Amino acid sequence: MITFKTTLGEIKIELDFDNAPVTAKNFQQYAEDGFYNGTIFHRVIKGFMAQGGGFASGMDEKDSRESIKNEANNGLANARGTLAMARTQEPHSASAQFFINLADNDFLNFKSEDVQGWGYCVFAKVVEGMDIVDKMTLVDTGRNGFHDDVPKEEIIIEETIVA
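C-alpha coordinates predicted for Peptidyl-prolyl cis-trans isomerase (163 residues):
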Protein backbone atom coordinates (compact mmCIF):
# COMPACT_ATOMS: atom_id res chain seq x y z
CA MET A 1 0.00 0.00 0.00
CA ILE A 2 1.26 3.45 -0.92
CA THR A 3 -0.25 6.66 0.43
CA PHE A 4 0.25 10.00 -1.26
CA LYS A 5 -0.34 12.89 1.14
CA THR A 6 -1.25 15.70 -1.24
CA THR A 7 -2.23 19.33 -0.77
CA LEU A 8 -5.84 18.20 -1.41
CA GLY A 9 -5.83 15.12 0.85
CA GLU A 10 -4.68 11.49 0.95
CA ILE A 11 -4.78 8.98 -1.89
CA LYS A 12 -4.17 5.31 -1.04
CA ILE A 13 -2.90 3.05 -3.80
CA GLU A 14 -2.67 -0.73 -4.04
CA LEU A 15 -0.03 -2.10 -6.41
CA ASP A 16 -0.73 -5.16 -8.60
CA PHE A 17 2.44 -7.25 -8.39
CA ASP A 18 0.66 -10.30 -9.88
CA ASN A 19 -0.26 -8.71 -13.22
CA ALA A 20 2.39 -5.99 -13.55
CA PRO A 21 5.41 -7.15 -11.50
CA VAL A 22 8.10 -5.04 -13.21
CA THR A 23 5.97 -1.89 -13.20
CA ALA A 24 4.71 -2.30 -9.62
CA LYS A 25 8.25 -2.91 -8.36
CA ASN A 26 9.53 0.13 -10.29
CA PHE A 27 6.79 2.38 -8.85
CA GLN A 28 7.33 1.06 -5.31
CA GLN A 29 11.08 1.73 -5.59
CA TYR A 30 10.44 5.34 -6.62
CA ALA A 31 8.02 5.67 -3.69
CA GLU A 32 10.47 4.12 -1.19
CA ASP A 33 13.25 6.41 -2.45
CA GLY A 34 11.07 9.46 -1.78
CA PHE A 35 11.20 10.42 -5.47
CA TYR A 36 7.54 11.49 -5.56
CA ASN A 37 7.83 13.75 -2.49
CA GLY A 38 7.46 17.33 -3.66
CA THR A 39 6.29 16.40 -7.14
CA ILE A 40 3.13 17.85 -8.63
CA PHE A 41 0.23 16.58 -10.67
CA HIS A 42 1.28 18.52 -13.75
CA ARG A 43 -1.46 17.51 -16.19
CA VAL A 44 -5.13 17.23 -15.26
CA ILE A 45 -7.88 16.71 -17.81
CA LYS A 46 -11.41 16.49 -16.42
CA GLY A 47 -13.13 13.27 -17.44
CA PHE A 48 -9.85 11.73 -18.60
CA MET A 49 -6.86 11.58 -16.23
CA ALA A 50 -4.53 13.25 -13.71
CA GLN A 51 -0.81 12.83 -14.42
CA GLY A 52 2.09 13.20 -12.02
CA GLY A 53 5.46 11.87 -10.97
CA GLY A 54 7.81 13.79 -13.21
CA PHE A 55 7.90 17.44 -12.17
CA ALA A 56 8.73 19.26 -8.96
CA SER A 57 7.09 22.53 -7.98
CA GLY A 58 7.45 25.19 -10.66
CA MET A 59 7.35 22.59 -13.47
CA ASP A 60 10.96 21.62 -12.78
CA GLU A 61 11.44 18.26 -14.55
CA LYS A 62 13.05 15.55 -12.42
CA ASP A 63 15.64 13.07 -13.62
CA SER A 64 14.34 9.50 -13.55
CA ARG A 65 15.88 6.05 -13.80
CA GLU A 66 16.01 3.94 -16.95
CA SER A 67 12.81 3.13 -18.83
CA ILE A 68 11.03 -0.15 -18.11
CA LYS A 69 9.34 -2.80 -20.21
CA ASN A 70 5.72 -2.03 -21.09
CA GLU A 71 3.52 -4.66 -19.39
CA ALA A 72 0.25 -3.31 -20.84
CA ASN A 73 -0.47 -6.77 -22.30
CA ASN A 74 -1.33 -7.96 -18.76
CA GLY A 75 -5.12 -8.03 -19.22
CA LEU A 76 -5.79 -5.02 -16.96
CA ALA A 77 -7.97 -2.19 -18.30
CA ASN A 78 -7.52 1.55 -17.97
CA ALA A 79 -10.67 1.82 -15.87
CA ARG A 80 -11.70 4.66 -13.58
CA GLY A 81 -9.50 4.67 -10.46
CA THR A 82 -6.63 2.67 -11.94
CA LEU A 83 -3.07 3.93 -12.27
CA ALA A 84 -1.08 3.47 -15.46
CA MET A 85 2.40 4.45 -16.54
CA ALA A 86 2.83 7.53 -18.70
CA ARG A 87 5.21 7.21 -21.63
CA THR A 88 6.24 8.78 -24.91
CA GLN A 89 5.33 7.44 -28.37
CA GLU A 90 7.93 4.72 -27.75
CA PRO A 91 5.98 1.86 -26.09
CA HIS A 92 8.79 0.89 -23.69
CA SER A 93 9.67 4.40 -22.45
CA ALA A 94 7.87 4.62 -19.09
CA SER A 95 9.99 5.42 -16.06
CA ALA A 96 8.54 7.49 -13.17
CA GLN A 97 5.52 9.34 -14.52
CA PHE A 98 2.07 7.86 -14.00
CA PHE A 99 -1.56 8.85 -14.36
CA ILE A 100 -4.79 8.09 -12.57
CA ASN A 101 -7.70 7.31 -14.86
CA LEU A 102 -10.72 9.52 -14.13
CA ALA A 103 -12.93 7.51 -16.48
CA ASP A 104 -12.93 4.17 -18.27
CA ASN A 105 -10.33 4.93 -20.96
CA ASP A 106 -10.58 1.78 -23.06
CA PHE A 107 -8.74 3.42 -25.97
CA LEU A 108 -5.57 3.32 -23.80
CA ASN A 109 -5.73 -0.46 -23.37
CA PHE A 110 -3.33 -2.93 -24.99
CA LYS A 111 -4.42 -4.14 -28.43
CA SER A 112 -1.28 -5.52 -30.09
CA GLU A 113 2.51 -5.58 -29.75
CA ASP A 114 3.21 -2.77 -32.20
CA VAL A 115 3.69 0.98 -31.80
CA GLN A 116 -0.01 1.77 -32.30
CA GLY A 117 -1.34 -1.07 -30.18
CA TRP A 118 0.81 -1.29 -27.06
CA GLY A 119 -1.33 0.91 -24.86
CA TYR A 120 -0.56 2.06 -21.33
CA CYS A 121 0.30 -0.35 -18.51
CA VAL A 122 -2.15 -0.47 -15.61
CA PHE A 123 -0.27 -1.47 -12.46
CA ALA A 124 -2.33 -0.24 -9.49
CA LYS A 125 -5.65 1.13 -8.31
CA VAL A 126 -6.86 3.80 -5.93
CA VAL A 127 -8.42 2.05 -2.92
CA GLU A 128 -9.14 5.19 -0.92
CA GLY A 129 -9.22 8.86 -1.86
CA MET A 130 -10.84 8.84 -5.29
CA ASP A 131 -12.78 11.87 -4.04
CA ILE A 132 -9.42 13.64 -3.71
CA VAL A 133 -8.52 12.69 -7.28
CA ASP A 134 -11.90 14.05 -8.43
CA LYS A 135 -11.14 17.33 -6.57
CA MET A 136 -8.12 17.76 -8.84
CA THR A 137 -10.44 18.25 -11.80
CA LEU A 138 -12.00 21.31 -10.15
CA VAL A 139 -8.73 23.28 -10.30
CA ASP A 140 -8.30 25.72 -13.19
CA THR A 141 -5.70 24.61 -15.71
CA GLY A 142 -3.75 26.37 -18.43
CA ARG A 143 -0.59 26.39 -20.47
CA ASN A 144 2.87 26.44 -18.87
CA GLY A 145 5.72 26.55 -21.39
CA PHE A 146 5.25 23.57 -23.71
CA HIS A 147 2.70 21.93 -21.40
CA ASP A 148 -1.09 22.12 -21.58
CA ASP A 149 -3.66 21.28 -18.88
CA VAL A 150 -1.32 22.35 -16.04
CA PRO A 151 -3.14 23.19 -12.80
CA LYS A 152 -2.78 26.93 -12.10
CA GLU A 153 -2.69 26.13 -8.38
CA GLU A 154 -0.15 23.35 -7.78
CA ILE A 155 -1.36 19.99 -6.50
CA ILE A 156 1.67 18.70 -4.62
CA ILE A 157 2.50 15.23 -3.33
CA GLU A 158 3.89 16.37 0.01
CA GLU A 159 4.76 12.92 1.36
CA THR A 160 4.79 9.33 0.14
CA ILE A 161 4.22 6.56 2.69
CA VAL A 162 4.97 2.94 1.78
CA ALA A 163 3.35 0.38 4.09
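The mean pLDDT is 97.
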